[in-house]
Design a protein that fits this description.
Layout: E1 5-10, H1 16-30, E2 34-39, H2 46-50, H3 53-61, H4 70-75, E3 78-84, H5 92-98, H6 102-106, E4 114-121, H7 128-142, E5 145-146, H8 155-158, E6 167-169, H9 181-201
Parallel strand pairs: 1-2, 1-3, 3-4, 4-5, 4-6
Length: about 200
Amino acid sequence: MSNVKLAVIYYSMGGTNYQLSKWAEEGAKELGAEVKVVKVPELAPQHVIDENEGWKAHVEATKDVPEVTLDDLEWADAIIFSVPTRFGNIPAQMKQFLDTTGGLWFNGKLVNKVVSAMTSAQNSHGGQEATILSLYTTMHHWGALIASPGYTDPVQFTSGGNPYGVSVTVGQDGKMIEDVEAAVKHQAKRTVTVAGWVKKGNQ
């Protein structure tokens, strides 16, 4: 799998989805994948961010993480998205980026990309599954191949059992309630493995 190129694209306010992305990076690298972790551009005004200490601190802590470009999508064999839920849908920041991919889509540059997604919410039924599925709707339009974790490993049952992609509940203290690190790494490895099959089949 050493030739599989994985882009992990995330949006995070408090750091949860950044941490999920870093675990995905670790899991993928264990299989020898080349990995980029990139964030989507922030749309919120700076004064709004400044009023939230946790948000402000996270933005400062991740200021050196590069912002995603369309070139990253073209480069990647596989893509993992990690986003918080917003009323059962993806955040505007991620949607805005996805809405810029029309040129790549039109030219067939996104066909057969292997994709997977993760999410978080402040309660266990806060739209986590709907968020992942809403992101996958765009992926179907791309002609991408979705590598959901399903129940391909027992770790799925110890981390909440979401077959569409890892989801985690975040408490009021900002800390993750479920232990999902192993599940994230499994999902990343599965995504890289499937991308390796696709890449080999296209050679």
